[in-house]
Specification:
With 323 residues, this protein is an alpha/beta fold. The chain has helices spanning 7-13, 63-73, 102-113, 151-164, 174-185, 223-229, 236-258, 275-284, 306-319; strands at residues 26-31, 35-42, 49-57, 80-84, 90-96, 124-130, 143-150, 167-172, 192-198, 201-208, 211-219, 267-270, 288-291, 299-300. The protein contains nine helices and 14 strands. The model has no long low-confidence stretch (mean pLDDT 88).
Length: 323
C-alpha cells in the first residue's frame, strides 16, 4: 500500500515524537464540516474485520472532545491511526519522475511544483506515489502523483489526534482509501470504477490490480439528494442532471482506455441503491452499475446501513490500508 505523509514526515512536524503502537489493527478518522467519521479494522486469518464504525455530526470546535470520547468508549487508546484528509485540504499534481535518489526526491519535487501551488512552497508538506507502470509507453519513466497540503494545517490536526490518545502513524487521502475498498470487490483484478457520493462531491476512482489508475472529483449533481427525489421514473430535469454526470464519468473511462492504454471496464460500483437511478446509469454507461455494499465483502457485526456506509466509506478504506 502506498503511504502518504509517512511517520517520518509527521515527526518532523511534531515538536516531539510519539511512541509506537503495539496494539493490533488500524483506526482511520476523518474531520469534515459535517462531523467526524471513524473506523477501526482488525486483522484476522479470514480477512479484515470491521470492529467499529461511526459518524458523529458535530461542529469543528467539538471534534476533539467527540474524538476523545469515541477513543475512550471503544478502548482505542494507543491504537495506530491514519488521518484522512478532506479533498479541499490538498492537491494532487502529476509530474514526470525525476532522475534523483529517493532521499533527494522531496527537495526536487518542491522545486518542480513551486509554481503550481498558490502558497509558498516552504509552507507545504509534500509526498508522492508513483503512477502504475502500465500507464507508461516505451522507456518513459512513470509519472509521480504529488500530494501537496499546508504544513501548518497538518500540525494543528495532528495535535488534535495526538491529544485524543490515538497514535498517528499515517496521513492519507480518500483516493487511496477508496482504492483499498475497490480491491475488496476486484478479486480477479480485472479492474473497476468506484464512485463515492458524498454530498455535492462524487469522487471517482479507477482501480486495477491493486493500483489507482485514475481519480476525479465530479462536482454536482448531489446524487444522494437526487436519488431521494426520484419516484417511479426520472423526470426531464433529473435526466439533464444525470446527463452531465454521465458525460464526466465517460470522460474518465475514455481517458483510462485511450491515454493509459487499459482494457475497457465492465463493472462500476456506486454508494447509492436507488433502483431507477442505477438502471438509468447502466443504460447509459458501458457495463453494469451496481450498489456498493461493503457487507458483501467485509466481515463485521455492525449494522452497516446505506447512510453509515456513505459517511464512513473512506475511513473504512483508510483502516484497510495495512490489513
Amino acid at each position: 500500500m502506498s503511504k502518504i505523509f509517512s511517520l517520518d514526515e509527521i515527526k518532523r512536524i511534531f515538536k516531539r515524537g510519539q511512541p509506537k503502537s503495539t496494539l493490533p489493527g488500524l483506526c482511520s478518522i476523518s474531520f469534515s464540516t459535517e462531523g467526524l467519521a471513524l473506523a477501526y479494522v482488525l486483522p484476522s486469518v479470514k480477512g479484515p474485520v470491521l470492529q467499529h464504525c461511526q459518524f458523529v455530526a458535530c461542529a469543528i470546535t467539538e471534534q476533539l472532545s467527540v474524538l476523545t470520547s469515541l477513543v475512550a468508549e471503544h478502548n482505542l487508546q494507543g491504537v495506530a491511526c491514519s488521518w484522512l484528509l478532506q479533498p479541499a485540504d490538498y492537491k494532487i499534481l502529476s509530474v514526470a519522475a525525476l532522475p534523483v535518489e529517493p532521499s533527494e526526491m522531496a527537495a526536487a519535487l518542491s522545486w518542480n511544483i513551486k509554481d503550481l501551488i498558490d502558497f509558498p512552497v516552504a509552507d507545504a508538506a509534500i509526498d508522492y506515489f508513483a503512477a502504475p507502470a502500465a500507464t507508461t509507453i516505451g522507456n518513459k519513466p512513470n509519472n509521480l502523483n504529488v500530494v501537496v497540503t499546508h504544513r501548518n494545517q497538518l500540525q494543528k490536526i495532528a495535535e488534535v489526534v495526538q491529544a485524543s490518545g490515538l497514535i498517528l502513524t499515517t496521513i492519507d487521502i480518500p483516493e487511496l482509501a477508496l482504492r483499498n475498498c475497490a480491491m475488496l470487490f476486484d478479486k480477479e483484478e480485472k479492474g473497476l470504477t468506484l464512485i463515492w457520493t458524498n454530498g455535492s462531491d462524487n469522487l471517482l476512482v479507477i482501480v486495477r490490480q491493486g493500483c489507482l489508475y485514475h481519480s476525479r472529483n465530479i462536482i454536482q449533481p448531489n446524487l444522494t439528494l437526487l436519488a431521494a427525489e426520484i419516484t417511479a421514473t426520472l423526470n426531464e430535469s433529473q435526466e439533464k442532471l444525470l446527463e452531465r454526470f454521465i458525460l464526466d464519468v465517460q470522460r474518465s473511462m475514455d481517458y483510462y482506455q485511450s491515454q493509459l492504454h487499459q482494457p475497457a471496464l465492465t463493472k462500476m460500483l456506486i454508494t447509492l441503491k436507488q433502483p431507477q437511478l442505477l438502471e438509468y446509469l447502466t443504460a447509459n454507461l458501458v457495463g453494469k452499475v451496481e450498489e456498493l455494499d461493503l457487507r458483501s465483502v467485509l466481515t463485521t457485526q455492525l449494522e452497516l446501513n446505506e447512510e453509515l456506509q456513505t459517511h464512513c466509506l473512506a475511513v473504512i478504506g483508510g483502516a484497510l490500508r495495512e490489513i
